[in-house]
């Protein structure tokens, strides 16, 4: 008997029916499994883009996400294109993510732009053993308590430099944009401790760095639609162009260090100046750090130190000063404390700072209301887990809304008010044990530069407040001071704080002002 095959249209319809049946079966199975697990609730979605439209127009995502979470709960799912974003907005949920299940949530997603800018081999975006190794090298080489203390003279010199420049504005009618002066302090300190301050084109370096940090610090279209990444050409070209400038400058810095090291060895000199690039070069050359440290890693880690250590500290100083001029009674109290602690001296050192309890409360309160990284840094779930009874699937990106935790009326009375006294006698601190207050994150991925950052913030603020009184320009009243935010690499003050410094305690001896080559 001859076997006849059905005609082509017939074959196609049979195939279609078969595929449909398979899909139905799969869907039924998936619904059955899903009904057992509680998928986190979330806002309504649109085909293809999911929940992205809720975020698209938002200039302040931490506030938008907080408002959405008020309707949907502390563990909220946003379907962002092809990516699941889970937003954490309560201290209980934050504790589960950063403590109970810390290991499952301590990977970082490799964001599209960061990946292009070589960041897979740095601390911020690497994972697993390579991350552990770089983290250890940086903590031992620069960020440990002992190391931070040993670098106090560098901080002192750089703050002197700023005070000297500010004193030329004293009592003049024209105000100073404080952020510009304070940025110099943070940039110079980080430049000196990471690569000895040597950078031939400092301005170009800082400009390119700022752009790259802005580009890698938030999601791009390709992060939500990985399959469209080839089409995200505009972003790609822009990021690559800026990154190449930065890479060339960093290449020069590292090569120069290698050259100087060679010269010093030839001349038999043992006292090689200490900085992080030498520490990293040594780890790279020794090759016994476990996984080999690459040349790209050395360059990317320098970037991490700038990205982590400059804008975060600068913006905290600016927000603190803004809150103080807005609250003259708190300003008077903190200045009285500092001037009393210093007594007859005309200077303050880091031993005096230990005694400045009220200043510490003021800084804590600023970090509660204005955490520089309101959404911390994104994490990625590496094993399906349960958070407050909701199932978070492996691969989901997790955002902890630290800003919302610091403003949650469940955790804080008069949550939006600046009241440093709330921390008086309280055990709540930012060291990662109190999940309602996590400006530095918590768990293994918490900020390794916390002590270094706090040392810069404390010395800068205490000396600004010791030596100067601060006046707002005539046209601005404390109550009218604009406190709007701008979300970028950090959440900074949208309108830079402009103040008139009035010299009160003379600036005796500035010592040497550091010269950049
Ligand atoms: C006011 C100052 C600072 C604040 C508020 C801050 C805040 C943060 C936050 C929220 C994170 C993410 C934590 C998480 O995901 O749980 C982080 C990570 C990080 N910070 Fe800081 N930071 C500050 C200063 C610094 C300084 C001075 C440095 C170094 C010079 C630094 C280097 C880093 C690095 C390398 C990471 C990535 C850690 C990792 O992924 O393992 N930070 N920081």
TrEMBL record:
* PROSITE patterns linked to this entry: CYTOCHROME_P450
- At the top level of its lineage, which domain of life is listed? Eukaryota
Family from the record: Belongs to the cytochrome P450 family.
Matching Gene3D superfamilies:
Cytochrome P450 (1.10.630.10)
Q: Where does heme bind?
A: 447
Q: Which InterPro entries match?
A: Cyt_P450, Cyt_P450_CS, Cyt_P450_E_grp-I, Cyt_P450_sf
Pfam families with a match to the protein in the record: p450
Could you tell me the keywords of this UniProt record? Heme, Iron, Metal-binding, Monooxygenase, Oxidoreductase
Q: Provide a Gene Ontology MF annotation, just one.
A: iron ion binding
Q: What is this protein called?
A: Cytochrome P450
Please list the cofactors this protein needs: heme
